[in-house]
Amino acid sequence: MSDATLPTAIPHPEEMRAELDLRFGSATIHATARTTPAGIIAVGVLVSSILLSTAVLVRAARKER
């Protein structure tokens, strides 16, 4: 069996990375994230559509009373 590792993906030229280490006493949480500007825009559009649809549902529910 070979000890070869998988090749890493070529990073996007505009990729953004973040790392976070949290320590609570003896417990440690390590988190990493990476995204591109297009990913941030996509998340913004999704959140906006969820909030808009929620506002429409709340308004419709209030009119029925």
From TrEMBL:
This is Uncharacterized protein. The keyword Membrane applies. Keywords: Membrane, Transmembrane, Transmembrane helix. The chain crosses the membrane at residues 38-58. The keyword Transmembrane helix applies. It comes from Sabulicella glaciei. It comes from the Bacteria.
